[in-house]
Amino acid sequence: LFLGADVTSLKVGMADPVWPTYPWHLALVSWPDSGLGFLIEHGHRAVGYLVGMCVIVLALGLWFAQPRRLLKWLGLMALAAVIGQGLLGGFRVRLNALAGTDLALVHGCFAQLVFALFTCLVTLTSPDWDEPVFSRPANDSDRLRFWSASTAALVFAQLLLGGVVRHTHVLFGPRGHLLLAFAVIGAAIRLAHVIHERRPVDRHLARLATLLLILTGLQVLLGVESWMLRFGAGPLADFRPATFAQALVRTGHFLAGSGIFATAVVVALWAYRASLANFDRASRTACRVEGAI
Ligand code: HEM
Ligand code: HEM
Question: How many other CB atoms sit within 10 Å of the CB of residue 202?
Fold first, then answer.
């Protein structure tokens, strides 16, 4: 995500116009001749290959060694998602003349979903997930589910609008992104409140609520700085090459956005934990009957 977002921030999306990528690694690239942009873009692809290799191992491992049906299928989904992400990256380069940066927008937004999926896998395979389910009164659980799902949905809409700001010059992008920021901040505060109003406070949810609030506060600061870089220096600012420090601020805003979305999704996962736990229990029982565990 960091390298990919840097490719966009430095505006070096077409530094390497060849796809399928050759060579697929960095060893044969002559370092002194290649600009920093080329190295970052090519490095982004090389790390993409590495992620691809890791996710093949992960999917096979989950499929053959995990008794939980949910995890087997999530492993396959992760593999399909990374393949899709790589193809979108390739099409972004290959179809540049036809689609310009439109496919970069799709590639960037899809990356947020891929990252959130991996965060779910980390949560579902952590020992914490196996702790006894923390019971809440029904109306309390409904409220938590509603606010966690709404926050995740609002943040995703905000990421889409952020993508429009970053990759296009359409006016509804900045207008919508700025207005929706208020809704995201409000939803994050309300969600933290819902989590804390129940005593005793679930420690996983409390930690996630703190993280969500810290990241959202940081995001507003990074957002204002990105705004100044993008619009504060006149209409032509976006057509000038970005310095490395400017690129880091804009990349930081992308990454904090990934963090906020993934955190909101994980809160929703904890909120829906009781129903997911029932699904898992049923598949474990089935495995036990079949003698798999
Ligand atoms: C695991 C696989 C990959 C992930 C998670 C990923 C993620 C990303 C992300 C997050 C961005 C930034 C988007 C933005 O700032 O809006 C990006 C940009 C980019 N990626 Fe990837 N990527 C992957 C694979 C690839 C591959 C295989 C290619 C090329 C063959 C590629 C080519 C690009 C290009 C050219 C850009 C810059 C788009 C622009 O012009 O702004 N990516 N990627
Ligand atoms: C509070 C929640 C916010 C979230 C979750 C968020 C998220 C994002 C994301 C993920 C992107 C990049 C999207 C992509 O490349 O696919 C983006 C772009 C952007 N955001 Fe935000 N943002 C928030 C608030 C703000 C605020 C308050 C401002 C300004 C005051 C702002 C200004 C911008 C600007 C200017 C861009 C384009 C940056 C560039 O061209 O490099 N954002 N936002």
Answer: 18
Distance from the alpha carbon of residue 231 to the mean position of ligand 2, in angstroms: 13
Cβ neighbours of residue 184 under 8 Å, at least 6 residues apart? 151, 154, 155, 158, 216, 260
89 vs 133: CA distance, rounded Å: 40
Q: Pocket around ligand 1: residues whose beta carbon is below 6 Å from it?
A: 1, 4-5, 7-8, 13, 19, 21, 41, 44-45, 48, 51, 82, 85-86, 89-90, 92-93, 101, 104, 107-108, 111, 114, 163, 166, 254
Closest C-alpha to 159, from 260, 73, 250:
260
Per-residue pLDDT of the chain (293 residues; tens, 9 = 90+): 999 999 999 999 888 888 787 766 666 666 656 688 888 998 999 999 999 999 999 999 999 999 999 999 999 999 999 999 999 999 999 998 888 889 999 999 999 999 999 999 999 999 988 887 666 777 788 999 999 999 999 999 999 999 999 999 999 999 999 999 999 999 999 999 999 988 788 889 999 999 999 999 999 999 999 999 988 877 666 777 778 889 999 999 999 999 999 999 999 999 998 667 655 665 555 555 555 55
DSSP conformation class of 113? H
241 Cα: distance to centroid of ligand 1 (angstroms): 19
Structure tokens of 191? 């969600």
Residue 257 contacts residue 158 (beta carbons within 8 Å): yes
Say how many C-beta atoms besides its own lie within 10 A of residue 248's C-beta. 18
Q: Which ligand is nearest to the CA of 250?
A: 2
Residue 69 makes CB contacts below 8 A (sequence gap 6+) with: 279, 280, 283, 286, 287
pTM of the model: 0.92
